[in-house]
Amino acid sequence: MNTMTEPLLTIDGLTVEYCTSRGRVRAVDDVSFSISKSETLGVVGESGSGKSTLGLSLIGLIPFPGKITKGKVILKGKEICTMCAEELRNLRGTEVCYVFQDPMTSLNPVKKIGAHFVELIQTHEPKVKKEEALERAKKLLKDVGIQPERINDYPHQLSGGMRQRVMIALAIALNPSIVVADEPTTALDVIVQAKILDLLNALRDAYGMALILITHDLSIVMERSDKIIIMYAGQMVEYAPSKDVYLNPEHPYAQGLLKSIPNIELADQKLEAIPGSPPDLLNPPAGCRFWPRCSYAFDRCSKEEPPLYITGAEHCVRCFLYDPEAKR
Amino acid sequence: MDKNKIKRSMLGTLLPIRSLAKRGLAGWLVLFGGILTGTIIIMTLISPWIVPYSPSALLGANDPSKILLPPNSQFPMGTDDLGRDMFSRVLAGGGVMLQVAIVSVIACLVVGVPLGLFASHAGGLVDRFVSLIMDSIYAFPGLILAIAVALVLGRGVINMALSITVVYIPSYFRVIRSQVLSIKELPYVEAANAAGAKKRTVLSRYILPNVLPSIVVVATVNFADAILTAAGLTFIGMGVPASVADWGWDLSNGQKLLASGSWWVIAFPGLMIILLALGFSLMGEGLSELLNPRLEQGGK
Amino acid sequence: MIFILLTTVFVIMRVLPGDPVLLHFEKSENLQAMQQMRVALGLDQPLWLQYVNYIFGLFRGDLGKSMQDFSPVAQQIFSAFPATLELAIYSMIIAVAVGVFLGVQSSKSYNRPKDHLIRVFGIVTYAIPVFFLGMLFQLGFGVGLHWLPVGGRFDMSIAPPAGLNIGNLHLATGLYTIDSILEGNMYKFVMAFKYLFLPSLTLGLVLCGVFIRLTRSNMFETLRLDFVTAAKARGLKDSTVTYRYALRNAFLPVLTMMGLQFAMLLGGAVLTETTFSWPGLGSYLVARINFRDYTAIQGTVVVFGILVSIVSLVVDILYAYLDPRIRL
Known about the structure:
The complex is a heterotrimer of chains A (328), B (300) and C (328). With 328 residues, chain A is of the alpha/beta class. Chain A is built from ten helices and twelve strands. Chain A has an eight-stranded mixed β-sheet, with helices on both faces. Chain A has a four-stranded antiparallel β-sheet with strand order 2-1-4-5, with helices on one face. The model of chain A has no long low-confidence stretch (mean pLDDT 82). Chain B contains eleven helices and no strands. Chain B has helices spanning 2-22, 24-50, 86-92, 94-122, 124-139, 142-153, 157-184, 187-194, 199-236, 247-254, 264-291. In chain B, helix 3 runs parallel beside helix 11 (264-291). Chain C has 14 helices and two strands; from the N terminus they run αααααααββααααααα. The mean pLDDT of chain C is 77. Chain C starts with a helix and ends with a helix. In chain C, helix 5 packs across helix 9 (186-223), helix 7 crosses helix 11 (238-276) and helix 9 packs across helix 11. Chain C has helices at residues 2-15, 20-25, 31-41, 47-60, 73-108, 113-127, 130-144, 176-183, 186-223, 226-233, 238-276, 281-291, 294-322, 324-327; strands at residues 164-166, 169-171. Chains in contact: A-B, A-C, B-C. At the B-C interface, helix 5, helix 6, helix 9, helix 10 and helix 11 of B face helix 1, helix 6, helix 7, helix 11 and helix 12 of C.
């Protein structure tokens, strides 16, 4: 699955800041990764960790007053940050597609399902006639497991799971290279969750696109992604293939996350939560942002910000524990 | 000792200005509006001492060369069709309007606020009845109602002020009433009542201070409206006689002179009306944002 | 509520001044003429009887007789009404069109210079006395540039548009722009439009401020909703998203505001008609004031009140009908 091809998308030192009346908030701080064709990348973090902002920055829809202040986003060799609004708009829906968290509110309530597809297709391929667009829509609905007749329904006539499938169908309609799914299952019940995730992976295999899964639930991405990024307070604290994260989590936060996943086979397992709460990004703690909650924290952690240390093939960690030059 | 006291009192007046400027656009609006209004008021007040000619002096009565002169060095704003100096008229012309506005705002406050407090506190049928009357007046086109009342009362400053008062009392009434009603439900007012506080105490200590900001905002906006309505009344001919300098009158007089291209007769008085109304409007906008901050996302 | 209005008007106009006839003549010289008038107008009857007659008269469409020539006031009002209606309609159209458009532009550049500029524009236009603006336009476009006529409603030398005659049926609205189309006469249409342009532009501009403010705040909220962001993420054109998605939802309050502004419109119409010699109810009112024709004035004021009541009733009904929460 993980062919050594030229990466589709490369993020290099991306920093996104919001300039609010109360001060500057660094929602994303120096994040770097890359993703190739047919790969799935999981981005895991608590709410406020910056994962959604990261996702939105890939399509240039960071809400006002946020801006990319440092770093680059390179899609298929082209830098997104320097593109004008019109070029960006052409990218959306065709190269990079976003599936939003809440299917209830993401579809236009006064438009039929079919109309959504027609509008999307005709915007990017103006020569396509309405009937042809509808035919394509029907096929897409079949691909995501919805009966084609439902193109004549309104969004409120579909269940939550079906609406999410429609969103996914809209996302893959124009054969994008990358699909970003932001908490695709949070608003759905557990049984439907698994189906949606399987669907996403199946589509990935069928269409050969790259998939970025953004979620707060580590267990979701554990099995289904090739690589995982763990985000905390806007920073990338660990980046590794998912197997490595499972077998050998290095960052204390990652370890904490793993310990807090309930395991049905361990009957009397005690759930361990990570003490404390995420920091206020207006006034982040000095030094490593995780140190107030870290059981391994030592003196240096509260004074210096740890850089990313490379600890293995494709595995890096932002923690002083792995400083090769430090002596404990 | 004395010098420090003076310094402190001067700083005292400067500080509010500085803190206003820090509050972003809203603060600037209040500042700018306040300065504008203040300047015009002062100008009008001192006009009797600084006018080059009497505003009602018909300089053209015996000297036809002084009629309808465009702006020049002797008459910086020109003269009208009877030789009156426009500059003097502009300096003094705000007097009537300001008087009308002040009287009507005070009258509205004196009548409208207690009425609003009373009705919302009384509740029940009384409240509904009074509200119904107020709503009817409120819905009615303002200028037309003012015309009707002014017609009945006759000309003159006080009468104009009274007709404008009648038109705008409902605005104050509604704002007070809605504020009181929303505050009445708040837990801390209920707590005070439950603890047995007298109605008067509740009113003055709890409700009034919270209602005050809205009153200020309504009054400021009302000022602007009053000025425009007064101008409108004068324009139709229901205001003051020609001997008193008044911008609205100048506009009505100048209308017939337009065809000859004598723009200066209306341009300057009109501009003054705009500036005065604008000053109050800006203050009102700024105050409304300062006193009722909206939940805004980011940015000043 | 109308009832209270009518009673209030009656109280103000009949009861307060005491004797309208006295006011009309100002000095009690010609006692005989005064008494004649009193009898002719029914003003010598006891007050309660006058009130009853007044109310019943209204239902019959009788608004009393003019003090000038004892002709029915209702008829005079009826003939002056269409001109005011036409002015009102076009002014409202301009106010809404300009206001909504600027409001949309303003909401999209939120808190940036363009936004501030537009907001200030809205405040400034409200502070301009409508007759002053009218005179400025007259000076500029009429006297200065000679592009547009300065007063009146139609070229005096030609017959005004008379509508369509189908057999015995005479179809005319009294609105010159529509009647000229009915008549099929394009020349008259252009002519009517030329005379209509400046007055309605004046009145429309002064009123647009409210719509700017309303649209701006509504659009700001709507543009933050999920389905708008989702639409943008699909790469839909900016104009599509703004107008077809966001504006649709923000439009209903505009409709309500149109109804509320109608009262201001009528007041402004009085001043505008006076400035432009537009032969409508406003001019009629002012002329009657100058003549001290109290019965006519009372009749006109009553009509204004009734108009406002009708419009607010219509708006209430329309709102209940169009509110999707009630319908869908």
